[in-house]
Automatic annotation (TrEMBL):
Protein name: Cell division protein FtsX
Membrane-related topology note: Multi-pass membrane protein
Family: Belongs to the ABC-4 integral membrane protein family. FtsX subfamily.
A Pfam family this chain is assigned to: FtsX_ECD
Ranges that cross the membrane: 38-62, 184-204, 232-258, 278-301
NCBIfam families linked to this entry: FtsX_Gneg
This protein's UniProt keywords: Cell cycle, Cell division, Cell inner membrane, Cell membrane, Membrane, Transmembrane, Transmembrane helix
ABC3 transporter permease C-terminal domain mapped to chain residues: 187-298
InterPro entries, per the entry: ABC3_permease_C, FtsX, FtsX_ECD, FtsX_proteobact-type
């Protein structure tokens, strides 16, 4: 260890000395990592995977929720009018509904158009020919602008309306599953966050063991625990920063490979949906959180070691 570090009075040398020791501690931690490249790389990668798993699940759930909301906004409400409502009356209703603030668009499907579509999409042509009169009612296909459930309830109360069909139930069930998924992600984040702390703690413990003689000398010279602990805290924080950046890199790589297949899936819903990752503020927060986990792991291990080895005063 550098002779400067062995000076137990260094922490009394003023603010400049304090800053110098922090910089030295940071450089020393980087040097320790460089001297053990394989072990350091494995620690960073394992911690990165532990961070990437819950983060990936959270961002996936956020994208599913956003995609479901996007599909929900463009999902149409099918309003079947009563059989006695004429096509002219259906057209008047369509004009009235287009003026509503909660309606984006209304398309009228006449009984004749409905019958043609039924012939084209099914094999019921001969059966339909035997029916004689067209049994299909007029259909208004409504695109909601706001709350689909509220709009559907409002349309159902109109006298000319017979049946309103929409898929609010699937949205409610999806919201339930998304909430459950977020709970799983948070539990997983807590468990893997603890794992990240232990991973860094184990790496720092190995570094402590390789410097135990120098630590003993510092303790006998009267160096404070904070003075001895500082280089190892920086080592844990550097592990955390590099692991956080690696986790973001892994998620970016996963996003790159998932984007083409997701684009094909979104196209089947008539959407140009694209995955969204973490913005700059969120990414910075993740890196800082990873650094905090590394700092915490190093602090716990170093504190335990110093308490056990502190000479009796």
């Amino acid at each position: 260890m550098n002779s400067t570090v062995l000076d137990p009075q260094l922490h009394h040398g003023g603010f400049r000395t304090w800053v110098d020791h922090h910089l030295f501690s940071l450089v020393r931690s980087l040097g320790n990592m460089v001297r053990k490249p394989i072990g350091s790389l494995l620690t960073i990668l394992v911690m990165a995977i532990a961070l990437a798993l819950p983060l990936g699940l959270l961002v996936a759930l956020a994208n599913v929720d956003r995609f479901a909301g996007n599909v929900q906004q463009s999902r149409e409400i099918s309003v079947f009018l009563k059989p006695e409502v004429s096509v002219a009356q259906a057209g008047n209703l369509a004009d009235q509904w287009r003026a509503r603030p909660d309606v984006a668009n209304v398309d009228l499907v006449t009984p004749e158009q409905g019958l043609q579509d039924l012939r084209a999409t099914t094999s019921l042509g001969p059966t339909l020919d035997n029916l004689g009169n067209n049994p299909l009612p007029s259909l208004l296909v409504v695109t909601p602008r706001g709350d689909e459930n509220r709009l559907a309830d409002s349309l159902q109360s109109i006298a000319e309306v017979d049946v309103v069909q929409h898929d609010q139930a699937w949205r409610d069930r999806l919201n339930g599953w998304l909430g459950f998924g977020r709970t799983i992600a948070l539990v997983l984040a807590a468990l893997l966050g603890l794992g990240a702390v232990l991973i860094v703690g184990n790496a720092v413990r190995a570094d402590i063991q390789s410097h135990r003689e120098e630590i003993g000398v510092l303790q006998h010279l009267g160096a404070t625990d904070g003075f001895i602990r500082r280089p190892f805290l920086y080592l844990g924080a550097v592990f955390g920063v590099l692991a956080g950046l690696s986790a973001l890199g892994l998620l970016t790589l996963a996003n790159y490979y998932l984007t083409p297949s997701l684009a094909q899936l979104a196209a089947t819903y008539g959407s140009r949906f694209a995955l969204q990752g973490f913005n700059f503020v969120q990414a910075t927060g993740i890196v800082l959180l990873a650094a905090l986990l590394g700092w915490l792991g190093a602090g716990l291990v170093t504190g335990h070691y110093l308490r056990d080895t502190r000479p009796n005063q």
